[in-house]
Each structure stands twice: as structure tokens, then as C-alpha cells.
Write the C-alpha cells for this entry.
Amino acid sequence: MPNSTSLALLKPGEFAIIRSFSNIDLCNKLMEMGCLTGEIVSVVKTAPFGCPISIGLGGHELSLRKQEAEMVLVELVP
């Protein structure tokens, strides 16, 4: 993946496609909330110290801890 990074490194307003998860337990939890591979996700806002991170996904908003967002591998959308 040429533009791959973790979700935690995206800035507000950036869009990416979820490619994989580095933690199977987290993967199951996020999939139940609608975070599926191939889904387009955006960072809506971050708290002042970077945690939590609010993401937009499928018409709704989720908040993730920075440690959780680091385990979501994404590909930037140009």
C-alpha cells in the first residue's frame, strides 16, 4: 500500500480507506460498530492532547482512543 498509515496519524479533514487491523480483538469490536475493511473513514476532530479521536464512518461518528486508532491501518484517499 503506497499511502498506508495508521488512522491515528490522520489529520482532521483527511479521508482514508480502512485496509486492515493489527489486533484481532479490536477488529471484532470495530466491525460490530461498522468499521469494515474497504470502508471510507475520515477524521472529524481530535481532542486537545490527541485522545480521543472522532471519526466519521458511514454517516455516523465514532470516538476512538488513540491506541485503538493506531491499530487501524488505512490507505490515504488522494
User: Anything to note?
Assistant: The two ends are 13 Å apart (CA to CA).
